[in-house]
Input
Amino acid sequence: MAGVGPFSIPAVKKGAIVYANDLNPSSYQWLCENIKLNKITSNINTYNMDGRAFIKKAVSDLYSTSNGTKFFQHFIMNLPATAIEFLDAFKGIYKGIDISSDLLPMIHVHCFTRSADPIQDIKQRVCQIMGGPIDAAFCNMQMHHVRTVAPKKDMYCVSFRLSPEVAFRSATDAK
Output
């Protein structure tokens, strides 16, 4: 969902370590080309794979290459048509990894809604995909209207910290 790099390239230029993924081979090719054109030579790791597999691989790669000393601070999921559907990849993502709950990443999910009550609609959809109520995470949920994309269709970005209940869930607990 990294596309050609509209979030990842500026982030790495500001000093972030970035893991960027896009399933589309053409987008992935242009992401790599834009990295070269912007003279970026470090702190970016690119992937061309399914989003769910990428989330798991990225967490594993960062953990292993840093010898367990670095963890993701943010996941930006910017494909509004389907980003919410990939949230299930976070179920149990940190199971067996020694990470404090306060270091769990913020997740920023772009999505569309046609609902008259967008907050309730988005919360319900996120909870359903995450496998049940995650109200603790929504106590600190931030949601902002990005733009209206069509009559009665709005884009939002919802941000919340990954809850320990989801992050450390065992495979048998996953719904």
Q: What stands out?
A: The two ends are 25 Å apart (CA to CA). The chain has a mean pLDDT of 91. Strands lie at 18-21, 44-47, 74-77, 106-113, 142-150, 153-161. The first helix runs from residue 8 to 13.
